[in-house]
């Protein structure tokens, strides 16, 4: 078990689910998801109340921290638009380095899930700078993990009887092209910006005449 997962487990044991989420928010491996899924049910109103109290007392730094935590929670839940809205409420110029790194990591996570690789790379570059300035080892490790996710194979392409692994930017380019794609991951057929869901349709993935690409 790696250091981040161990730290997240200790946070959970100490009754600090937000601290645990802080450590695994951008990870999608099985141990991280297992930790995250245990504690996503905590009442968000408590965090909203805490943030409002902090803002009322002029503690804008900790209020921004609370908003960053909410954005990370929304990202984990897949509520990308809400997470993006939460980030938009932050004053990026006034954030200390640690919070700047968290904000940038969430922004990178949103971009990654939307297959906007250029935006993800820009956000990670910003996160890297802030994490280094913060001196927080866990943040630097999280940025490094996010870079690995960006550069790791993201899909398997099957076309013309051959298979190869695709990086995330290649998946982005393929889905934006006019190639007919049978998406075995999301159970859909895609052609450029048009997608037809196959989630409720029993479809066998067999070859058919004409050019096509399939990835899973």
Task: Provide an overview of this structure.
With 216 residues, the chain is an alpha+beta fold. The protein has two domains: 3-151, Serine Threonine Protein Phosphatase 5, Tetratricopeptide repeat (Alpha Horseshoe); 153-215, no CATH class. 58% of the residues lie in helices and 13% in strands. It contains ten helices and six strands; from the N terminus they run αααααααααββαββββ. The chain has helices spanning 3-13, 17-24, 30-38, 44-56, 60-76, 80-88, 97-113, 117-134, 137-151, 168-176; strands at 153-159, 162-167, 180-183, 188-191, 194-197, 213-215. The chain has a six-stranded mixed β-sheet with strand order 2-1-6-3-4-5. It is elongated and about 60 Å long. It starts with a helix and ends with a strand. Mean pLDDT is 76; it is low at 24-34 and 207-214.
- What is the structural class? alpha+beta
In N-to-C order, the SSE pattern is HHHHHHHHHEEHEEEE
Q: List the uncertain runs.
A: 24-34, 207-214
Spatial strand arrangement across the major sheet: 2-1-6-3-4-5
Identify the CATH architecture of the largest domain. Answer: Alpha Horseshoe
Number of strands: 6
What's the number of domains?
2
Termini separation: 28 Å
User: For this structure, what is the CATH class of the largest domain?
Assistant: Mainly Alpha
């Amino acid at each position: 078990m790696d250091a981040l997962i161990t730290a997240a487990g200790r946070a959970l044991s100490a009754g600090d689910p937000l601290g645990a989420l802080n450590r695994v928010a951008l990870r999608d491996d099985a141990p991280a998801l297992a930790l995250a899924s245990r504690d996503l049910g905590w009442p968000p109103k408590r965090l909203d109340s805490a943030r409002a109290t902090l803002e009322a007392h002029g503690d804008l730094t900790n209020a921004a921290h609370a908003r960053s935590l909410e954005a990370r929670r929304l990202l984990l839940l897949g509520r990308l638009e809400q997470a993006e809205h939460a980030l938009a409420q932050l004053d990026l110029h006034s954030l200390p380095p640690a919070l700047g790194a968290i904000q940038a990591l969430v922004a990178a996570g949103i971009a990654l899930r939307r297959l906007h690789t250029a935006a993800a790379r820009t956000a990670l570059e910003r996160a890297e700078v802030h994490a280094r300035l913060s001196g927080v080892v866990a943040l630097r490790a999280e940025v490094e993990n996010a870079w690995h996710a960006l550069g790791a194979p993201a899909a398997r392409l099957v076309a013309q009887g051959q298979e190869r692994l695709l990086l995330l930017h290649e998946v982005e380019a393929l889905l934006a092209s006019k190639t007919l794609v049978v998406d075995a991951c999301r159970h859909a057929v895609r052609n450029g910006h048009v997608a037809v869901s196959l989630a409720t349709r029993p479809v066998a993935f067999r070859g058919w005449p004409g050019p096509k690409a399939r990835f899973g």
